[in-house]
Amino acid sequence: MTDSLQAIGRIAAGGLEAQSTRLRIVSENIANARSTGSTAGAEPYSRKTVLFQAELDRELGASGVSIKGLSEDESPFRIEFDPGHPAADESGNVKLPNVDMLVEMADMREATRSYEANLQMMKQARSMISMTIDLLRGS
Amino acid sequence: MEPVYLFDLATRHAQWAALRQTTIAGNIANANTPRYGALDVEPFSTVLDKTRLVMASTRPGHLTPGANGAAEVDARATSDSWDITHSGNSVRIDQELMKANEAARDFSLDTNIMRSFHRMILTSLRSS
User: Fold this and answer.
1) Mutant choice from B28, B41, B94 vs A, greatest count of A C-beta within 10 A
2) pTM of the predicted protein model
């Protein structure tokens, strides 16, 4: 019984780790929102996303979460006319990263919400374990 | 008078609540996993119905029905999820937290039943 309660801690910790990685990728994207190439016509920074996958824990029958990997956003880059820029091509266009601040902010809020939910599960599991231990204390 | 196996019942219910909580934790951890369907354990009443009486086996030749008589509780996909997002994920965090609260309340009921029943036993011991 306590084993399955302890498993809650493990699963929730996996969730916390996955969401914090996602948050880290969001901050990378925002930090590189205007990272262009340095040579003429070079590709800029391309937005990254995290892939989650469910991972079944055989002994418990419950599934935790793990990170399958990172992938790059394939959407087209923004183009801006700036002939003086070192990364400008012959017609004076500069490719800017395909990072949309609004999307990143929404992603950040969702990651924070999921993080809080995992934290809540951890707290609840801990209070359930201490309820069991309190039985020993007698009255 | 029918004997009531209160300790056994409370223990089993607490086990079920703990398992349910584990399943909910798995759901919440996978709240953003594409194509993940929310799981839930079967209700406690059906678990009780499946539980069999175990016969003692005193010789190797005796037949033993199933394992140790403790019913297997398995997680299965829920059908009452509030909605499914575009990525095919059917976990709603608010719904899961509600279920988690329910399971924690069940568990607290069990531990309190055990505590008061234990106190009753102690009272009968002391009075003699």
Assistant:
1) B28
2) 0.81
